[in-house]
Amino acid sequence: MTGDRQTLINDIMMSCLPVLSDEQADHVRNTLAIKLNSYNVERCTTDIVEYQGNEKELLLRKFLIAKRVNGCTERTIKMYGDYLKRSIYEISKPISQITTDDIRYYLALKETRDGVSKVSLNNERRVLSTFFTFLQDEEIISKNPVRGISNIKGKQRKKNAFTEMEIEQLRQACSDERISCMIEILLSTGCRVSELCGIKLTDISADTVLVHGKGQKDRVCYLNAKALISISSYVELRNDSNPYLFASSKYDITYTEMSSDMRSRNRRLDWWKHADLVSEDRRLNVSSVEAKIRNLGKDAGVPHTHPHRFRRTCATMALRHGMPIEQVSKMLGHEQISTTQIYLDLSEEDLKISHRKFVV
Asked: What is the CATH number of the domain that holds 299?
């Protein structure tokens, strides 16, 4: 410390000597020695020092911030975070030292030890690839170790659309105007259940509805006659000011503020007809819609009834009635037609009819 103090004094004096007399220089030197005696003086270094914090946490945070700036939704960012926290911490090596073999071993372990499906494994592979590509683009690493791992192909299971008979069974079993409105919109637009929950009354105009899709991408969907009639019948029964088409109950979370009469009415299917039970600005959540539609399927005797099956049904029916697959893809909000093809439930009979119609 003493050496650093004396070095500082000497450096200052070397700078001042050209403009000071010998007497003035002695005075300045003595003053500096006295004044600096009560201070700790240490030479700073400009050498690059190794970051001592958590490297994985730092790089993960940097990646998620970049995704937020790119416009990813909170749901997508959370998905990236959940996958990456699990994987990069289980691979107990510094990120810059992770190899292709490390990731292969990790994915194989997830499948054999944890019983993870091929689909989930491939999702994790894609997230890891996106993360390491980002690090490579930022010149933090020189090579993406996931690039050498091919797409993981899972077993393709056929998922069926509703038959016309099953659709009528569901309609007949539905005694609630609100649930009837839900299924008719799902059948007419093919929208996702999260998109259904996000529809506001002002999004509906004439025979169209503005759907707020994945990745903050809006699109216009069209409403058929059954959907329009169902929406009209349902909205006429509402007398609240909630902006959403499917409003949430004011007392979804707690019953502590409710009287016994209000609790009784809130349990009834038609609670949404009473303004004092409807929240001011909250929408019905996805899990509530899924539960209501599953229960409708049980009442109707239609197995495997869930909102996403209506999306598959809408796509399949549209194609069967002659809508080009490019337009079906646009209706569903898909960027790739290959994604749309996964949704289609086309039988051998459909192929036979199309063959007669189009093949000479």
From this structure: 1.10.443.10
Say if 150 falls within a structural domain. Answer: no
Question: Is 147 inside a domain boundary?
Answer: no
* Side chain identity, residue 275: A
Of 104, 98, 90, the C-alpha closest to 132 is 98
* 292 and 202 co-located in one domain: yes
**Does residue 283 share a domain with residue 173?**
yes
Residue 146 lies in a domain: no
Residues 6+ apart with CB under 8 A from 44: none
In three-state secondary structure terms, 189 is: helix
Tell me the residue range of the domain where 9 lies. Answer: 2-36
Tens of pLDDT, residue by residue over 123-154, are 899 999 999 999 999 999 999 999 888 888 76
Phi and psi, residue 141, nearest 5°: -125, 160
Q: What pTM was computed for the model?
A: 0.63
